[in-house]
């Protein structure tokens, strides 16, 4: 469960980027965050993960107030997986090594078992275990980033634009993998996306953000059908 209550945060003392952000996600659901460039979507994920600490407001994960816990403790302590918008794999390392980094906290045998499990799920990884991540295509890299975050079996997954730069076909492969994580691993997923319509198709609910706060929220299907939402926020690309 993710409960963000009236969170204010920013990078410098004078400027607030998140200006009273309030949202929730719980159980096995995909919640998508939409909104224009610069409105604070990545900042919100970074604040939930603990790269930034809120100035005020509360972040509760799985029932525990973790507002002031920094990232290095939070990822392990809260069962949190985070795939950032950029630099989400270690290019110089092999696929196997990337997965080992993700499973860093696990006992060795458990790490190996989990790696086998994820390779069975994502054959593209199994085929190239000893190749460097730098040699992967964009879509393969997103799958690796997802698998790396899944190594310690997180209960909560934060994904920042997992479909960025992908062709429609590969986008669907990555989104299928995300749906599988929700359905099979029962993970609560908070996902930032620019491909709004495609993202809403696989989401349960969504929030539209504007200038560091929630402008509107609703069930994904209802938002997709809402003419005004389509026109104002989604560029009406659904036809
Ligand atoms: N590391 C940083 N230091 C200072 N300001 C930052 C930093 N990262 C982001 N910002 C500022 O915070 C604001 C929100 O940025 P953020 O990255 O959260 O936007 P976003 O909604 O994810 O945008 P995009 O859709 O382009 O990824 C922007 O004005 C940006 O310039
Ligand atoms: Mg961003």
TrEMBL record:
All residue ranges annotated as the ABC transporter domain in the record: 2-236
GO biological process: L-amino acid transport
GO molecular function: ATP binding; ATP hydrolysis activity; branched-chain amino acid transmembrane transporter activity
UniProt entry keywords in alphabetical sequence: Amino-acid transport, ATP-binding, Cell membrane, Membrane, Nucleotide-binding, Transport
Domain of life: Bacteria
One matching Pfam family: ABC_tran
Family designation: Belongs to the ABC transporter superfamily.
PANTHER family, per the entry: BRANCHED-CHAIN AMINO ACID TRANSPORT ATP-BINDING PROTEIN LIVF-RELATED, HIGH-AFFINITY BRANCHED-CHAIN AMINO ACID TRANSPORT ATP-BINDING PROTEIN LIVF
Name this protein carries in UniProt: Branched-chain amino acid transport system ATP-binding protein
């Amino acid at each position: 469960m993710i409960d963000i209550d009236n969170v204010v945060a920013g990078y410098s003392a004078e400027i607030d980027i998140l200006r009273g952000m309030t949202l929730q996600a719980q159980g096995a659901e995909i919640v998508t965050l939409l909104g224009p460039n610069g409105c604070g979507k990545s900042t919100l994920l970074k604040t939930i993960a603990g790269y930034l600490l809120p100035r005020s407001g509360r972040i509760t994960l799985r029932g525990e107030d973790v507002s002031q816990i920094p990232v290095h403790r939070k990822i392990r302590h809260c069962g949190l997986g985070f795939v950032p918008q950029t630099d989400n794999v270690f290019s110089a390392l092999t696929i196997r090594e990337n997965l080992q980094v993700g499973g860093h906290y696990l006992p060795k045998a458990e790490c190996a078992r989990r790696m086998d499990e994820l390779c069975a799920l994502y054959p593209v990884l199994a085929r190239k275990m000893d190749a460097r991540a730098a040699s992967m295509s964009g879509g393969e890299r997103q799958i690796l980033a997802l698998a790396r975050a899944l190594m310690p079996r997180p209960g909560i997954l934060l994904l920042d634009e997992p479909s960025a730069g992908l062709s429609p076909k590969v986008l669907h492969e990555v989104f299928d993998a995300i749906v599988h994580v929700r359905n099979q691993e029962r993970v609560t997923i908070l996902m930032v996306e620019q491909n709004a319509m495609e993202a809403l198709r696989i989401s349960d609910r969504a929030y539209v953000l504007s200038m560091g706060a929630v402008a509107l929220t609703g069930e994904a299907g209802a938002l997709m059908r809402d003419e005004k939402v389509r026109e104002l926020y989604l560029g009406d690309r659904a036809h």
